[in-house]
Amino acid sequence: MPVRIDSTMVGVAVPAVGGVPGIAMAGFTGRAERRTDLRMVPYPAVTVFIDFGDVTITDEVSGTSGRGGVVVGLHPGDVVGSGQEVDVLQVRLSPVMAHSVFGGCAELGGAVVGFDELWGPESEALCDRLRQAASWDERFAIAEAAIVRRCAQGRAVDPEVAFAWRRMVRTRGQVRVEGVAREVGWSRKRLWSRFGSQVGLTPKRAARLVRFDHVVHRLAAGHAAALVAAESGFTDQSHLYRDVMDFTGLTSTAAAVAPWLAVDDVAWPTSHAT
After folding, report:
1. CA 250 and chain centroid, separation
2. Residue among 93, 92, 95, 70 at smallest CA distance from 80
3. How far is Cα 100 from Cα 151, in angstroms, rounded to an integer?
4. Mean pLDDT throughout 254-266?
5. Contact 73, 108 (CB under 8 A)
6. Where does residue 70 rank: exposed (0-12), middle (13-18), buried (19+ CB within 10 A)?
7. Which of 46-55, 105-114, 205-214 has the least mean pLDDT?
8. Which residues contact 118 (CB under 8 A, 6 or more apart)?
9. 3-state SS string over the chain?
């Protein structure tokens, strides 16, 4: 399905059937008239980009960039995708899934890391298979099977951490850490420590990121900021504005029309929080 991003029409492919929980995938193809920059909006997932065109992903804070295959951690800072020939497989992994797939992904932060650095020696063969696939459906099937295998071989997060993450997603970030700790039978300090070491964000920051994702998509859909603030647990509209500024460096008005969000309803139709 085509969607307009700035002045470029981009084809968006999605899997024909529902996939594995914690894994969301979409394929993007198109050609811009000139090389175009697209700034990422923070999203509550670890994002993998496998590129078959000329897209470069750059963390403008550290200056780190990558092509071909890169992984972007939770809550990227100033991460920009730049390219003209778009042919990209994008995979969003919940932090619970990403921990099993990549192991030490908690140390990623918002950094841009080469896919080969995290996946290891088999990354080149996997990328070649994806490049040679005859269709997006075949690419999705190859990628999903590889991720599921890695997940089965990896180290799972603590069940209590997985429960806390699911609760954050289910409540759209409107959850108190103390309450979740009581539910899993841990102290607040233990949940804070274990969650942070395995997910890469504190529970409070993770919940805020999930809530931000819900809020910014509601704003993009045209909902009034006052209503969104009231229904999303903010003390007032100014509190919402500060939260959006903290995550994006943009005003809520500017964030709501960010080009990166333009494809979300098409590429990730079931949920905005993995």
Report:
1. 19
2. 70
3. 5
4. 83
5. yes
6. buried
7. 105-114
8. 71, 102, 103, 105
9. CEEEECCEEEEEECCCCCCCCCEEEEEEEEEEEEEEEEECCCCCCEEEEEECCCCEEEECCCCCEEECEEEECCCCCCEEEEEEEEEEEEEEECHHHHHHHHCCHHHHCCCEEEHHHHHCCCHHHHHHHHHHCCCHHHHHHHHHHHHHHHHHHCCCCCHHHHHHHHHHHHCCCCCCHHHHHHHHCCCHHHHHHHHHHHHCCCHHHHHHHHHHHHHHHHHHCCCCHHHHHHHCCCCCHHHHHHHHHHHHCCCHHHHHCCHHHHHHHHHCCCCCCC
Each residue's pLDDT tens digit, 19-33? 789 999 999 998 887
- How many Å apart are CA 244 and CA 209, to the nearest integer? 10
d(CA 58, CA 74): 15
d(CA 49, CA 70): 5
Tokens of 270: 């079931």
List, for residues 103-126, the tens digit of each pLDDT value. Answer: 866 566 667 889 999 999 999 999
82: amino acid identity, one letter? S
Percent pLDDT > 70 in the chain is: 92
pLDDT score of 5 more than 70 = no
The token duo for 223 is 């909902």
Q: Hunting for tokens 């470029």 — which residue is that?
A: 8
